[in-house]
UniProtKB/TrEMBL annotation:
Gene3D superfamilies: 6.10.30.10
Residue ranges of every copy of the ChsH2 C-terminal OB-fold domain listed in the record: 63-130
Boundaries of every ChsH2 rubredoxin-like zinc ribbon domain copy: 26-61
Coiled-coil spans in chain: none
Database matches in PANTHER family: BLR3430 PROTEIN (PTHR34075)
Protein name per its UniProtKB record: DUF35 domain-containing protein
Source species, domain of life: Bacteria
Length: 145
């Protein structure tokens, strides 16, 4: 059995709410790949995934593999546990990351492997995959070093 990183949020607080538009994201994540939908008509990224392009109203997309790196757009540090299950992981950092090579794509995830007091907007990060269970892998970010 794999030992989970103690910084990670408890498994009990993770669940997958996939639909037909988001399923390709989660399927790629299961293989440790970061993908986002890009409109085949105007080439705009559509994230979060949606049935039609916000730019040109087309419906077709290609799922494009991304490098898994980016910069922190903003973040918050949670210091008080809202639920008893979070008592062992506070403080924890939630980041919004501007994903490299995907203009307009921002991903919200937990930042691990860094003292919350040292996190900075504009900091480079990279994705780290957490295989929570056989049917669910989620992205987290770590400092890019």
């Amino acid at each position: 059995m794999t030992t989970r990183n103690p910084e990670f949020l408890p498994v009990e607080l993770t669940s997958l709410h996939a639909d037909s538009w988001t399923w390709p994201f989660w399927e790629a994540a299961a293989s440790h790949h970061l993908k986002a939908p890009r409109c085949t008509s105007c080439q705009e990224f559509r994230f979060p995934p949606a049935p039609v392009c916000w730019n040109c109203r087309a419906s077709e997309v290609d799922w494009v593999e991304l490098p898994g790196t980016g910069v922190i757009f903003t973040f918050t540090v949670t210091r008080k546990p809202l639920l008893p299950a979070l008592s062992d992981v506070v403080p924890y950092v939630t980041v919004v990351v501007d994903v490299d090579e995907a203009p307009g794509v921002r991903l919200v995830a937990q930042l691990v492997g860094q003292d919350p007091e040292t996190v900075q907007i504009g900091q480079s990060v990279r994705v780290e995959w957490d295989d929570i269970r056989e049917d669910l892998t989620i992205p987290r970010f770590t400092p890019a070093d």
